[in-house]
Each structure stands twice: as C-alpha cells, then as structure tokens.
Design brief:
mainly alpha, 83% helix
Length: 152
C-alpha cells in the first residue's frame, strides 16, 4: 500500500507559512513603487541570465574542466569554481557601486562615499583565488607526504 507524504511538524508548517507571508509582503512593497519597471527588471534579469550568462559561464566551466581534465585532475576544478562563483556573486550584488553608475545618488542617501568599491572587489577576488590556491597547495602537499612513506 502506498503511503501519502506527511506535511511535517507543526513548527515546519508555521515557518513555511511565515516565509510565504514575508515573501508576499516584500513583493507587495516592491511592486507598490513602480510595478511595470520591477516586472521588466525581473523578466529582463531572467532572460539575460538564461540566454547570455548561463551559456557564458558554462563554456568557461567546460574550459577550466578541460584544462584540469587534460592533466588528469578534474576534481581540482572546484578550486577555481568556488572563488569564481563567490566573486561573481559579489559582482552581481554590488555591480551598480562597482561600476560607479550610482555614485552620485549613493552618497546623499547613505552619507558614505561610493569610491573604492571596484578596488575592494578586485582585492576580495584576489584573496578568494589566493586562498583557494593556498588550500590546493596544502592539500597536495599533505597527499604527497602521506604517499611518500609507502613508497619506501
């Protein structure tokens, strides 16, 4: 006999209902200002992602996997994928400030200078890739040390 799936605990149901209520509230507040522009932005972002960015970063990922796969170490692609994904996410979130397009409207609203976002993003990206490279070197070193006593 086939069992029906359970709904979960009352706490899970309550948390799910609260998250839907919060998302609904945020949607109503967001669309209250300029609904056509917000809708256009969401549709444009989805289309831009699916038709431009997804094929682009899939091609880059295949190239990176091909380089590491050619030398027989395909699992090392994660040492490039993770910092690239985090750097890309930071670029996506902070792009208006990184590009300097909203600097004139950012300062009066926040009281903070909009200068330096590009430099900070580059620095964070360098630290992410440098940390990933350091982690890879340390793991390769540990693997080499573990193998060398067995060779003797």
């Amino acid at each position: 006999m086939r069992r029906l799936p359970t709904l979960g605990s009352p706490l899970q149901i309550l948390l799910l209902a609260c998250s839907f209520a919060l998302a609904g509230y945020a949607g109503v507040r967001l669309l209250a200002g300029d609904a056509p522009a917000v809708t256009l932005w969401f549709v444009g972002a989805a289309v831009l992602h699916d038709l431009v960015f997804l094929p682009l970063y899939a091609a880059v990922d295949r190239a990176v996997a091909g380089v590491f796969g050619a030398v027989g170490h395909r699992e090392r692609t994660m040492y490039v994928r993770v910092p690239a994904a985090l750097s890309g996410l930071l670029l996506l979130v902070w792009f208006p400030l990184i590009s300097g397009r909203v600097a004139e409207s950012y300062e009066p609203v926040t009281g903070l200078s909009a200068e330096g976002f590009f430099t900070r993003w580059l620095l964070i990206t360098a630290v992410l890739f440098g940390g990933s490279a350091l982690l890879l070197v340390l793991r390769l070193r540990r693997a080499t040390k573990q193998r060398s006593p067995a060779d003797h």
